[in-house]
Amino acid sequence: MNELNTRRLVGAPAVPGDFADIRRLHCDPRVMATLSADGNTFSEVQTRAFLKNAAEHWKLHGFGLWLFREQVGGEFVGYGGIKHAVVEGRDEIELGYAIRSDYWGIGIATEISIAALKLGFNVMRLDRIVAFTLPHNRASRGVMEHCGFTYQRDIVHAGLPHVLYILEARDFIARS
What we know:
Blueprint: E1 4-5, E2 9-13, H1 19-26, H2 29-35, H3 44-61, E3 65-70, E4 76-87, E5 90-99, H4 108-123, E6 128-133, H5 138-146, E7 150-157, E8 160-168, H6 169-175
Antiparallel strand pairs: 1-2, 2-3, 3-4, 4-5, 6-8, 7-8
């Protein structure tokens, strides 16, 4: 699982050497308004901690977040994948993604999400995957719904209100 490719993208596990690319994403106020707990951009320390955690997740579990680049030209577009997350005290597998704002609106998040979901359900044989976002993040909610997730309920995550979506394997496979 060292590579996750889509029609337009090549994904590789996020590692500390990806600092400059992830830093670019974490410095974009439009992106971070939907990702960070306080809506602010990340510091260098926070970006390094993010990459360290991503690399540790790969070591522990053999899967995690991939860093995605365009197949043609190799331009960094964002990251995404599936990873462990604690949601309301329960260990879950979460779909996550973050895309550079200049790539918004062209289906990149959906493309990454579908590739990660296929891996999770068809290869890893997971029973379900969750996704969550801030209630006002309509674009992310649209990606989740387009991928087949259904809204479950409002939750509090990282001290903030979020909306929780769930996708069961049987529902994803039936749609494929």
